[in-house]
TrEMBL record:
Belongs to the ABC-2 integral membrane protein family. InterPro entries: ABC2_TM, ABC2_TM_bact-type, ABC_2_transport, Nod_factor_ABC_transporter. The keyword ATP-binding does not apply. Keywords: Antibiotic resistance, Cell membrane, Membrane, Transmembrane, Transmembrane helix, Transport. This is Transport permease protein. It comes from Plantactinospora alkalitolerans. Residues 61-298 form the ABC transmembrane type-2 domain. Residues 1-24 are annotated as: Disordered.
Amino acid sequence: MTGRNEGRQTAAAVASPGPRTQPGVAAGGIAQASAVRLPSTLRVGLSRGVVELKQFFRQKDAVVFTFAFPAFIALMLGLIFDEPVHGIADVRISQVFVAGMIAYGIVSTAFISMGVGIAVDREDGTLKRLRGTPVPAGAYFIGKIVLVGVSTVAGIVLLLAVGVVLFDLKLPTDPARWLTLGWLLALSVVSCTLLGIAASALARSARSAPAVLNLPAIALQFVSGIFVHNDALPDGMITVASFFPVKWMGQGFRSVFLPDSMMVQEAAGSWEPGRTALVLGAWCVAGLVLCLLTFRWVERDSR
């Protein structure tokens, strides 16, 4: 009898559902849990962008260098070469430098600053810690893009202010030119940002990153007609520059802020907007591929 009673008790315990819970409470708990969702990658990325901006603006020297350096170079070159373009009396060389210098401002902000910033985050462990959190990797890059976008727009505004006030640069009145400026900015920022992310892998440390990234950036400014007028460039340099985005960026921005009479000063005698868009778009794709192949979350010695 004892064995039977124990067997019945065991079977009853297995079959019994245990203490009953109130159906309304259980259903409400499930509904509440399902209603709570994690913030989207875009929302987290924008929040991180605010953090990036705060950190950036606290570094006064970096702010001054990033915003003022392209305008300072345009000012120096404009004061030295403030004379009419040969054969075109209504355009001065200073205006040509200011229009083309927008390309260098984007390279400085999107390529150099992006690459250096990622190298610093990699060395101090920010990227390594990020991988151990629920924050998606895309949010980190969105935050960097927010920083690049704000810095680029601010730098361009300062540069154009120098051109308008000191060198009588005329802002375009044709809406089509402002539309051209829009897609030029988008393609230029995207391509340079992606290339900056990929190039950050070349730097072995945060200390060496500025030197590693500045060398190709400065070299391309000379051969692409940004720091030197096109008339002074050998044909070989122009050919080499045609394979890189900086030449097309400078040519595109000149097409926005200079009259069409300046087309004859370009290598092809034309603004070539279609080819400019094609080359910059190709570099956006190439930059994305390079990012996927070369980007590292940790330092080489930490693998």
